[in-house]
Input
Amino acid sequence: MRLSKMLFVTLREDPAEAEIPSHKLLVRAGYIRRIGSGIYAYLPLMWRVLQKVSQIVREEMNATGAEECLLPQVQPAELWQESGRWDTYTKAEGIMFALRDRRNRDLALGPTHEEVITTIAKEMIRSYQQLPLHLYQIQTKFRDEIRPRFGLMRGREFIMKDGYSFHTDEESLKETYKDMDRAYRNILRRSGLAFRAVEADSGAIGGSGSQEFMVLAEAGEDEVLYTEDGKYAANVEKAVSLPADAEPSTFKAYEKRETPNTATIETVCNFLKCSPTQIVKNVLYQAIFDNGMTVLVLVNIRGDQDVNDVKLQNELTKLAGEYKANTVLSLTVPDEEAQQKWAAKPLPLGYIAPDLSDDYIAGSKEVSSKFLRMVDQTAVDLENFVTGANESGYHVVGANWKKEFELPKIVVDVRTAASGDRAVHDPKQVLETARGIEVGHIFQLGTKYSQKMGATYTNEKGEEMPLVMGCYGVGVSRLAQSAVEQSYDKDGIVWPVAIAPYHAIVTIPNINDTQQVETAENLYTQLNKAGIETLLDDRNERAGVKFKDADLIGIPYRIVTGRSLKSGKVEIVERATHNSEEVAVEDVVSYLQKSIAAATDSEQ
Amino acid sequence: MRLSKMLFVTLREDPAEAEIPSHKLLVRAGYIRRIGSGIYAYLPLMWRVLQKVSQIVREEMNATGAEECLLPQVQPAELWQESGRWDTYTKAEGIMFALRDRRNRDLALGPTHEEVITTIAKEMIRSYQQLPLHLYQIQTKFRDEIRPRFGLMRGREFIMKDGYSFHTDEESLKETYKDMDRAYRNILRRSGLAFRAVEADSGAIGGSGSQEFMVLAEAGEDEVLYTEDGKYAANVEKAVSLPADAEPSTFKAYEKRETPNTATIETVCNFLKCSPTQIVKNVLYQAIFDNGMTVLVLVNIRGDQDVNDVKLQNELTKLAGEYKANTVLSLTVPDEEAQQKWAAKPLPLGYIAPDLSDDYIAGSKEVSSKFLRMVDQTAVDLENFVTGANESGYHVVGANWKKEFELPKIVVDVRTAASGDRAVHDPKQVLETARGIEVGHIFQLGTKYSQKMGATYTNEKGEEMPLVMGCYGVGVSRLAQSAVEQSYDKDGIVWPVAIAPYHAIVTIPNINDTQQVETAENLYTQLNKAGIETLLDDRNERAGVKFKDADLIGIPYRIVTGRSLKSGKVEIVERATHNSEEVAVEDVVSYLQKSIAAATDSEQ
Output
């Protein structure tokens, strides 16, 4: 393509809306254009990148025997009501766009396709002989994000590869799950990305096991904890570790102490000259279930530890049935406004005891009239500990479970693992931390959807059994941007060769020089014929502007038909290293063929 | 792909929802599956067809220098308000899905992308040096159809290629328009379809010139009128022709006659023993504009002619400014219920005179208090004509314009052309009729959108000028189904080779016969390696079932490893003709390579 014939517009200024480098660069270099909040147009250069990523994804998926299809984006509400996810996805913090058609029927824009594919499986799969089966699609998806940002990273419209597999049993599911793990690693390696596969929380999708694929980058929204030996890596939402040992208590006798202005762990430790590991911290949460019920949860945890909201939400979801609900819609530390809806009297915030009595709750139809109590395992073995006295400005010291305080029946692991913690698999290994961008997620769903939606098959004995399912997603547009986030410099984008929009750009420094133009035109034609995707900068611009633009858009190889032409050579500049080499005009095609093969081989 | 590993399910029964053969066949053969009204999943076989059509479209578009991109499907309402189309597209008969996000901002699901692309052009195009420019995308679009039907033909979610070009002037636009005409003919020819390019109405998209590409098929929703000499073809909505000559009047004097029970042209002709060409027929319409205003329109037309609603709507749209409106939302013949909203007294329906007096209108804030009168050119030259007397059961005869009736100031062509009419370009040519499925439409938009949205460029003299635009659409999913509608037989689908999901299917009649299986497996591997996309029917089914399925899904070549194996041969059956040939196993690849090349060559 000739730049003179393309929609080629680069900007000098960073766009006001952009916070992270990849977002700024993609807008400045003319790859994307904002149309609305979290909504972008993919301009021609970006579309080429997306097609290249899609093609790598497609090849790796097809190699596993998965079949490509395309499912509807507009989905009838009935399907989501059947699976029990309509309310979770459309109400409260729900992220699904809902709409009504001209006949007032509820519809949704698909953020994911478990419901649609399970319906198809239910209608089309009859027998174990049809299994296993794996269908996938590459498609634009929609999420009504609370805070769209970072360009394509957290958009309201984005491109995903989502696949769904169907099996007779868990064993068959695990095989496909393993295939997908391999396929996803191949996809990321072939795309030229540094990444880490980590244990993950299954979130609203549900199911038993799940793994995320993180592209490592400073601006990543996710924190990954991992060990040097490579044997453990997990999203912090899910990570487990061994906490530091608690220090022995310095308090021998139970006693209530006046501790003014000590509403934080730090202040009470200073005041009482004790370690945070000697404290039982009591944190109050307010959980709202999908049936509208509010449950107040008091969590006891060791003073040096923090509650991991995702783990706590998962523990509460396990208990949803007891409140006649399916799932937790929101989990928050109640502020004063929230408390006013149910508090019978002011709470002693900062001084709450492990057993806050139920008479703090006035209750109402929607609020459970008892505190739900849970203790994190870090707090279970503490003796003679310090904790709140249920009275502002007072703590107790030398307290013990089963003496002063009843130990909650529900013992859980809801603590946040942190870098520096010892690893569970080998206490000599210490957890390290990295930032990552989640670009892939694979799930073992089990029978969660097939049971709710009645999707069954007949086994060899003639019995009707629920289909066992897996689902597997790659964020195609997010992956593309994450490549930029991982690979740029002060001059612009540095695309991995495999997903760059073009391999090379032929730059004519002076379009009034006939020899420069002729050589460039010839090279442009030869390179494209040889399958090397090449741009031609034939614009009437200064050489400096052209070099800057080529660097900004990040094309891997720049061929300059400049001064060295008099000795029959052109300059070839590698974008990533800025290394420049003079190459005879007749050797340019083979030089680039070798370079591209080497660059994409090393990525594979 | 092996059928044993695919989602391969065929049905014996026609689906209840399907009315036309292509819809029945695509469902029965497992290509598509209904998820909701007008919403279909494209299963793996269908997806392959759609990808092949898309690839042909892409190649032809790229060959013209157009650049592929992808624009958002969710579009902010502001853009549509700017262009003035928000109300037309979302209210009354509007076909755009509207929705609200979590912040209550209005959004729409794009049925078309003039607004988005014009916004991008406005922001990115500065100078004439950037022009011409043509961007296109292949994308799922949405329409909240009043009556979704015929499978993918009139769905609520469908795949389109839509392209938009920008120019300095009309001349440059016309060049691209011509390129598109050629590209579209290539697309249809390469897809193996019989089609006709016809003059078309520009409808809600607007603009000056437009042309449709019709795939010819009995079940087509559109009627095409054309002449044998190939010099004229138009959609009936737009077609013009010469009406038959009027017979001279048999009434010499003006007179009112009692004509009981003659509310139709036929009955009054019988009663008065006159020709329909001697009558002025007066048809009352009710037009609702986008600002809510209702205008009553009385059209005078010759008795043997019919009013073409599309032409009339276009004439009314030209007058919209006089009613402070932009466009006509609906145009209907008012029934009794509609009349009650504005009629001051009962109308003499069937006996209306050319000049129905305004005192029939009681009027209201929303109803124009005068009849808008128009005369079709067929009625202008009549003399001593018959027409209604504005009194039930009475006509007048021997009437004349300017004597008994005022000739309306607005003279229009709103008559429906019909097969049998003489052609305008050559009265010796007679219009013939055919049914067609509209699969492509190209428009010269001019400055309609750029002026409304302020999209300008600076010309060579430094003046700011509105961009001149064109837009060009191909219904990708509709084209795919129209291929089936044009090409099937009693046994199933007969895909054109160029867009068939696979070229060939190797059928093993008996999977317990080792020689059959081995030969088939070898052929399957060899054929795929040679680039011939091949299925393997390795299912444990009777040969008859396999043959039936292969015919139903319409794969162009079936290779049967049956009895002739003992003489080293397989049977190759051509789907389209059912011709069968015995071919030596070692010649199968070259035999098919030749056949496929010939079939796709002849299509090109």
